[in-house]
Amino acid sequence: MLNPSGRGTVPAGLLAAGLAVAPWVLLAMWLLAVLPVWAGWVLSVSGLYLAIALRSLREHARAVSLPLQAGDLLRAREQVARIVSRDTRALDAEGVARAATESVLENGADALFASLFWFLVAGLPGVVAHRLINTLDAMWGYRTPRYLAFGRVAARLDDLLNWVPARLTALGYALAGDTARALRCWRRQAPHWKSPNAGPVMAAGAGALGLQLGGVAIYHGEQQKRPLLGEGATPDAHAPLAAIRLVQRSLWCWLLATLMLAVWL
């Protein structure tokens, strides 16, 4: 039985995470070692393509935005429920738009930029390790008594792996939008957000878009009063698509920066 206080659970959590992640990372390393160079590059690029989720993120944003634009709130709620963990049944149109926009901004970091970062740092093994830890955090990170031991370790490992990518993502959002406002919101608002990585990403993203996100949300039947993020208008039906465009512009910024660095080196 798990210790309700969570004491003494770190070794169990580390062991579980290690058993879930290490074999696949070692397999990726072994394949790259035994395959010809060209085949290793094909495998690495294919793995990166499968890991990043820009197309999926864009499709989810459209699936929420288009019903909202058509006035179909029920359909929009059904679609946003697929990408957020909060209770969506009582959300109005603004609440649905806010939830979808926040999800796009946060997943732009988790499902796109972090994978690119770890690919540049450690190749395919880095991508595999990051995506698996991120998946374990999504599965175990909600600290129910059943998953207490595993959830805490998975969440901390995910925070660690995403610390640098999240801040690069926030900087990318700032460069791709209203830079001054994004940086101001990041500096002033991010420290008040519960997640050390989601705070900078969403504060900078909201500021870059000129939107106000955050506020009250219901998770697992409990109302949570979250800090406000960003400045400006409340999200509307077009906000999720605006967030996707910001993610895409930020991606081009970092791809250009990476290319320039590669040429310079």
Automatic annotation (TrEMBL):
Mode of membrane association: Multi-pass membrane protein
One GO MF term attached to the UniProt entry: ABC-type vitamin B12 transporter activity
GO terms (BP aspect): cobalamin biosynthetic process
Signal peptide location: none
Regions crossing the membrane: 12-32, 111-133
Annotated localization: Cell membrane
Alphabetical list of InterPro entries matching this protein: Cobalamin_biosynth_CobD/CbiB (IPR004485)
GO cellular component: plasma membrane
Pfam families reported in the protein's UniProt record: CobD_Cbib
Keywords attached to this entry: Cell membrane, Cobalamin biosynthesis, Membrane, Transmembrane, Transmembrane helix
UniProt pathway annotation: Cofactor biosynthesis; adenosylcobalamin biosynthesis
Annotated HAMAP family: CobD_CbiB
Entry function: Converts cobyric acid to cobinamide by the addition of aminopropanol on the F carboxylic group.
Similarity section: Belongs to the CobD/CbiB family.
Official protein name in the record: Cobalamin biosynthesis protein CobD
